[in-house]
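Researcher: I'm preparing a figure for a lab meeting and need a structural model of a single chain. I don't have an experimental structure, so a prediction will have to do for now. The sequence is pasted below. Please return the structure as tokens so I can convert it later.
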Amino acid sequence: MKSIADQLPPQIARQLHPDRQKNEAEYWAVRDQLLDQYEGQWIGFADGRVIASGSSPVTVLHAAEASGRHPFFICVGREEEPCRIRRATFPCDDSYHGETLPLTSVEFGDPVPRSCR
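Model: Understood. Here is the structure written out token by token.
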């Protein structure tokens, strides 16, 4: 399998920590052994082992990143399916049950100017 980092634009690939690339290489070396237990699950993989797993990519990403070990993050058995997760900081509504929801300002207006009616 071609490294995911090799598929990134060069200016982005240069920003990856070397440990993240090492963890990706180690993942591919043991990937077939992980299929039985983790197929269809998101995992964070670092230092030769799974450090976080679950069905929610956001939860697993946060748990894996909290380790500080520059984990490789992937959905086992679905490596070829595209998935984009962006990291952003914004205020959230923590009172919502389940995953927190972002707070945003919305302005409603008349979509058709009166002169066009």
